[in-house]
Amino acid sequence: MSLPIIAFDLDGTLVDTAPDLIATLNWVFAERGLPPVTYEEARSMIGAGVKPLLKRGLTAQGITLPEPELEALYNTYLERYAAHIADTSRPFPGLIAALDRLEADGYSFAVATNKLEWLSVKLLDELDLSRRFKAICGQDTFGVPKPNPEMLRKTIAKAGGDPARAIMVGDSEADFRVAQNAGLPVIAVDFGYTPRPVQEFGPDIIISHYDALPGAVAELTAQFAKV
Question: Does domain 5-16+89-226 have CATH number 3.40.50.2300?
């Protein structure tokens, strides 16, 4: 029986993207004469895509922009962020070694993120990570974002896997919900961006470092074998 595909979230799971996302947020705010958002406050706003990040940043300061102005801010953000997407963003500690070990064991990987696909590919290209994933899919790839289970199922299928036999790895509520909605197990990393403890979302396994990922994957794979 084939091994399950491992589908990863991107921001806050594979890569610590907060420094570049927040630097871009405060740069576009400064360009519009708006006050900055603190790093810690902005970190918990990451995870649903750029436009929600902008809206959360504005809301935190009691600012509401008309839709045309928000759209202009969004476009400015995308242009700036794309140019600085990997200035300081880096894979989380232990990720590369964990992927090497799992790949040697025969596992394949995919990315299922609410980041736009082209930005996801660009980031992973610049970090020399794209080649490791059979599919890199964003909220726009299939027209549905997480936690819609079709986003995860279609990502797994695109990676050549069985949508009924896969493992999700993520850090946010959307990651846990998409896996649960698709009837798949989920591994939570507790070093991501969600402001709530990951235990509250009921993941199957929680890890605090990527050193623990191969063991967690092996445990869930064994459960598939029993079905």
Answer: no
